[in-house]
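Batch manifest line 343
LIGAND: iron/sulfur cluster
JOB: complex structure
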Amino acid sequence: MSTTFFEKTTTEVRYDWTRGEIRAIYRQPLLDLLHRAQETHRAHHPPNRIQTCWLVSIKTGACPEDCGYCPQSAHYKTGLARQELMDPRETVAQARRAKENGATRFCMGAAWRQAPEGREFEAVLEMVRGVAALDMEVCCTLGMLTESQAQRLKEAGLAAYNHNLDTSPEFYGNIISTRVYEDRLRTLAAVRRAGITVCSGGILGMGESEEDRIGLLEQLATLHPHPESVPVNMLVRVEGTALAAQPPLDPLVMVRTIATARILMPRSMVRLAAGRKQMTREAATLCFLAGANSIFVGERLLTTPNPLPDEDQLLFRDLGLEPLEGPTVRCADGSEPAAEHGE
Ligand code: SAM
Ligand code: DTB
Ligand code: SF4
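JOB STATUS: finished
ARTIFACT:
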């Protein structure tokens, strides 16, 4: 392989990936895949640095959507206690605690089909302003957004919006019937137009095929620009949900998907999101080797447990990882923010 070809394949950012190309990358021998992912990673990001994000559920349960994986859907009996929207002062206090614990990004999740208008939306804006004032990267995930809501969130200081495509367009209807893929894409476009960076990824282990994972990656990697942040979740199987009886996912599927995402979207932050509690340290380490450079820290995700802070500290120490300091997004105009990572 000539040096020129090698440099081109690891540093070029492309938006015209075909399904065939993605399949070929995904299916290559795992060690070749990891090698290329690691080369790509090091060409765009500082090695041994992991972004730590803190997640908090600001409104819990009783969601009208029927997402088959979700403990917060009103369609399933999961025994989850519902909670109305949190007081903004409480949210900001939690963000302060997250910052004291070393987190640099704070993500607020709400079990809504779409962000509401009126008093509740005003309260969310107050939360965003309060967390932004702490000099943390602020992210929200509130369901579908209108253009005007995206604009107001941006003005309040929102850096990123999480809205997952979850799986391939073909498999989507098997998991959710109360909305369509196009709804998701529309919200992502509204977020992008408002100049907020995009956080969008998926869930593995829902019974999807390899081709569905490739299809999800194709959707994400042909967005222009790429999502600045790509969470890869392993399904957390919750009793009572439609997907509770799914067999456990082979962690190597996470590794393969993360490595492919790293190659396709070289500048993006790739987050090893839900599922770390169900994974060994060794499997998580392979995900880092594959190019994951972001995780959720703190003892809980939204409603399910995450590894304890002490366990994570030990993992960082044993692997020689350091938290990634400072902002990873430039939120002024939504343009290619990941260029900041060590190029
Ligand atoms: N209601 C909003 C929405 O769906 O966009 C925001 C909150 S929702 C809980 C955020 C994301 O969490 C979902 O898009 C899904 O990808 C992920 N998620 C939910 N339940 C999960 C589970 N059991 N395992 C893994 N990921 C899950
Ligand atoms: C994302 O991709 N994963 C996070 C965050 N974005 C909002 C949510 C994971 C939720 C896991 C199930 C739960 O704790 O309720
Ligand atoms: Fe509601 Fe979001 Fe859960 Fe779907 S994933 S049921 S939209 S909270």
